[in-house]
């Protein structure tokens, strides 16, 4: 049978289920990654499973999110993660080594392998021909223990790239075009597989920009073939031996097709506050910009930085703009410092930050009130920058650099000659800041520190669920709404009781208090609930506050899986208009819920306050039902181990 690339990688890793769209499959996982903001929980959960040593080909623990070290909390987390990596057998990429996705692409990614990571942009690895998927920390913990990843067999979409990009039009514009066409929920349940003659015109880092931000469509992942360009990239990383050619069979079949004529694209920009709110840069005229941020895991490669340096060389940025640049990895920064490009950036007035996530997740560099900030990152959700009323636009490094010079949002084609950037023959890799797994695990003491608290565990699903509607929200609620990040809240990622005080802060700051007072209850939402980050804290904290079920029109993939992992029932309205009929504070009851789950997908919910009944759907596999009944994945795994 003719297969596409996604099917080939899935087939080679399939341990359970059949490859029929919509069915649950289980995949063997070759590699995992964690980052510090999700990693502490993932490692605490791994430790709670009592498995003596990590059981994957490669697991890497990165420190890249919380590197501000405003207090002892971040540093304690780093120490904890370093010791855990040593004890259980993970590579440890120290703070300063770079953003997990950029470093993983450079140093660990292998075409044809499966990678899961406790970060939604793990999809970056698709640029190398990996099947790389963002998941919750608990799923990574299970995979580190040797367990498979369970997921719904996705549909595969053929994204056919025709022709070649024009000068000043970038890989970022390709993914912005995809977002413009399919929206922030158009990828749910799908893999975006890139094919066509345009693929060969894109470098690996450019492909990685596209697969990275494919996460914003809600797709399970995105993948490019592994070809001669991939081989050259790996060779320049000193890793040619891991290369293999991979691609779809000729005439492979796909469930859907999208065609993009690269030559027809123009510089694009996503306007506030959603990554799919995309228009041409030239359609927005005279928009004064006071901050430009170039970096993040989407656009911080050597190629991106060199292009920006070439644009800025010999110029001075506009007096009204603050330009901050975060090179994606130490490898990139080192090359820039050796070849003089760093001096061009500094000379133009850029503020160089360390190789970390930084401003992308609101850790430093919050813009001034009401500011317009143009960023090369992947998310422009309201408030994520650290300034609630900032207007964040997402654009390519070329557009961002042109904007920094002119002080208004600028189409980079105005800059004249396009600087062609060749990738080096060698990236001169060194792994000095990667600590290899210790062989002497017995001697390693793990130190927690006062801010690292035990993982709360859910209780088994009761016979009847009842409680108040504690919150009613609209479409596209992101995990940044549910559990905000930023320099204030991120340091609490290992301390759920403290973190719970900030749950739903941007939406309704009284939520934690009300939930506790009511002894828990329900959340009601609309479309694409839980989009964005993989942070399991957006499920773990509501569980800690007593949330029993979330009733919505549709869920984002990772968040739905996280809710199940933490014992919260994810329910969808059978009749979507029932959403309108429910009010805040209504008391709902789902009687005999455990038996009802056994009997079928449809459950009856009674609105006690308003005296009516409505139906919701619980589309759950037998395994997911068992996890929910046990009170979440940790309990379930323990129960399984005892059998
Ligand atoms: C993000 O971009 O929102 C993050 C921070 O990288 C998250 C992970 C997290 O919340 O720790 C993600 O994308 O998964
Ligand atoms: Fe880090 Fe931003 Fe990438 Fe998330 S999106 S991994 S915060 S750089």
> N-to-C terminal Cα separation, in Å?
40 Å
What's the CATH C level of the largest domain?
Alpha Beta
Looking at this structure, what is the CATH superfamily of the largest domain? Aconitase, domain 3
Runs with pLDDT <50, length 5+? none
Q: Beta-strand level of the residues, as a percent range?
A: 15-25%
Ligand set: alpha-methylisocitric acid, iron/sulfur cluster
- Residues in helices, as a percent range: 25-40%
Would you identify the CATH architecture of the largest domain? Answer: 2-Layer Sandwich
Largest sheet: 7 strands, mixed, barrel
> How many domains would you count in the coordinates?
3
Structural class: alpha/beta
- What CATH calls the topology of the largest domain is Aconitase, domain 3
Shape: globular
Radius of gyration: 24 Å
Mean pLDDT: 97
Structure notes:
The structure is a single chain. This protein is an alpha/beta fold. It has 3 domains: 260 residues, Aconitase, domain 3 (2-Layer Sandwich); 146 residues, 2-Layer Sandwich (Aconitase, domain 3), CATH 3.30.499.10; 178 residues, Aconitase, domain 4 (Alpha-Beta Barrel). Helix content is 30%, strand content 19%. The chain has 22 helices and 27 strands. Strand 13 and strand 14 form a beta hairpin. The mean pLDDT is 97. Alpha-methylisocitric acid binds next to helix 2.
């Amino acid at each position: 049978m003719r297969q596409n690339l996604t099917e080939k990688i899935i087939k080679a890793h399939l341990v359970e289920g059949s490859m029929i769209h919509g069915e649950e499959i289980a995949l063997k996982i070759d590699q995992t990654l964690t980052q510090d903001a999700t990693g502490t929980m993932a490692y605490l959960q791994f430790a709670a499973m009592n498995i003596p040593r990590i059981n994957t080909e490669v697991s890497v623990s990165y420190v890249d999110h919380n590197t501000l070290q405003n207090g002892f909390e971040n540093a304690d987390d780093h120490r904890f993660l370093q010791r855990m990596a040593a004890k259980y057998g993970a590579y440890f990429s120290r703070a300063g080594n770079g953003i997990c996705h950029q470093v993983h692409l450079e140093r660990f990614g292998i075409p044809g392998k499966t990678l899961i990571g406790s970060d939604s942009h793990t999809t970056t690895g698709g640029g190398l021909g990996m099947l790389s998927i963002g998941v919750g920390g608990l799923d990574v913990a299970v995979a580190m223990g040797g367990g498979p990843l369970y997921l719904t067999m996705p549909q595969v979409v053929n994204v056919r790239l025709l022709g070649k990009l024009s000068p000043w039009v970038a890989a970022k514009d390709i993914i912005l075009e995809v977002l413009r066409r399919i929206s922030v929920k158009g990828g749910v349940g799908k893999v975006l597989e890139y094919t066509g003659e345009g693929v060969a015109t894109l470098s690996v880092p450019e492909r990685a920009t596209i697969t990275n931000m494919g996460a914003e469509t809600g797709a399970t992942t995105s993948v490019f073939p592994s070809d001669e360009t991939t081989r050259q990239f790996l060779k320049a990383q000193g890793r040619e031996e891991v290369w293999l050619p991979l691609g779809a069979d000729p005439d492979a079949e796909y469930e859907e097709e999208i065609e993009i004529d690269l030559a027809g694209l123009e510089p694009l920009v996503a306007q506030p506050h959603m990554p799919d709110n995309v228009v041409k840069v030239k359609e927005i005229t005279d928009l004064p910009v006071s901050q430009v941020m170039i970096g993040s895991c989407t656009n911080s490669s050597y190629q991106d930085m060199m292009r920006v340096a070439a644009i800025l060389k010999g110029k001075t940025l506009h007096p009204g703009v603050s330009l901050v640049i975060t090179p994606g990895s130490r490898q990139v920064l080192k090359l820039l410092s050796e070849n003089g490009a760093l001096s061009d950036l500094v000379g133009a007035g850029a503020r160089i930050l360390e190789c970390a996530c930084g401003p992308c997740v609101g850790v430093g560099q919050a813009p001034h009130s009401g500011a317009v900030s143009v960023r090369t990152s992947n998310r422009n959700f309201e408030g994520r920058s650290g300034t609630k009323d900032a207007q964040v636009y997402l654009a390519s490094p070329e557009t961002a650099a042109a904007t920094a010079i002119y002080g208004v949002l600028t189409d980079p084609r105005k800059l004249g000659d396009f600087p062609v950037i060749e990738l080096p023959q060698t990236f001169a890799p060194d792994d000095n800041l990667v600590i290899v797994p210790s062989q002497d695990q017995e001697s390693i003491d793990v130190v927690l520190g006062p801010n690292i608290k035990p993982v709360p565990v859910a209780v088994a699903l009761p016979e009847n669920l009842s409680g108040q509607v504690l919150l009613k929200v609209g479409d596209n609620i992101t995990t940044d709404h549910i559990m905000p990040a930023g320099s204030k809240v991120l340091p609490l990622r290992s301390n759920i009781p403290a973190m719970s005080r900030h749950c739903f802060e941007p939406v309704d700051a009284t939520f934690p208090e009300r939930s506790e007072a009511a002894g828990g209850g329900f959340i009601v939402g609309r479309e694409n609930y839980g989009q964005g980050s993989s942070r399991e804290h957006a499920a773990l904290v509501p569980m800690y506050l007593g949330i029993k079920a979330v009733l919505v029109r549709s869920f984002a993939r990772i968040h739905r899986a996280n809710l199940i992992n933490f014992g919260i029932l994810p329910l969808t309205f059978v009749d979507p208009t029932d959403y309108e009929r429910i009010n805040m504070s209504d008391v709902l009851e789902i009687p005999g819920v455990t038996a009802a789950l056994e009997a079928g997908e449809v459950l009856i919910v009674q609105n006690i306050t308003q005296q009516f009944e409505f139906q919701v759907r619980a589309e759950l596999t037998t395994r997911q039902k068992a996890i929910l009944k046990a009170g979440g994945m940790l309990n379930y795994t323990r129960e399984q181990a005892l059998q």
